[in-house]
Amino acid sequence: MKGFLIKTLINAVAIWVAAWIVNGIQLASGKADLGHKALTVVAVALVFGLVNFLIKPLVKLFSFPLFILTLGLITFVINALMLWLTSWAAGKLNLDFNVTGFVPALLGSLIISLVSWGLHLALDDD
User: Fold this and answer.
1) 81 contacts: CB under 8 Å, gap ≥ 6
2) pTM for the whole thing?
3) Whether 11 contacts 113, CB under 8 Å
4) Which of 59, 72, 100, 112 has the greatest count of CB atoms below 10 A from its CB?
């Protein structure tokens, strides 16, 4: 349970950084207070984790020939699509998170991957 909580918080920080850096990713309106933004980013991180847990393995399975053909570069596209799908699901759940297009989703997924990788290195599993 502790590992799930830490991974969710790491994803929340990574999503927050991506929303701060990438122009096409909006996370809670500017007039929202810090508490509202924090709850929103944690809820979006939960949705992101659920999308990555349930849907991403199926997409990877069906796109296996593309992995071989592109030498794994299709991973960047799949990660961007998972972030875009998270944006869509967040909209359905009335969460204040929006990714406006594929390029912001691609840049955001790269930033989320780098930040979460760095935080996983910095924090032990224990």
Assistant:
1) 59, 105
2) 0.89
3) no
4) 112
Decide if 11 is inside a domain: no
* Rounded (10°) angle between helices 74-92 and 102-122: 100
Look up the domain containing 46 and give its range: 34-122
**Number of domains comprising the chain:** 1
What is the amino acid identity at position 104? Answer: P
Residue type, position 48, single letter: F
Residues 11-56: tens digit of each pLDDT? 999 999 999 999 999 987 766 677 888 899 999 999 999 999 999 9
C-alpha distances in Å from residue 66, one per residue of 25, 61, 75, 80: 27, 10, 9, 16
Is 22 within a domain? no
Has residue 39 been placed in a domain? yes
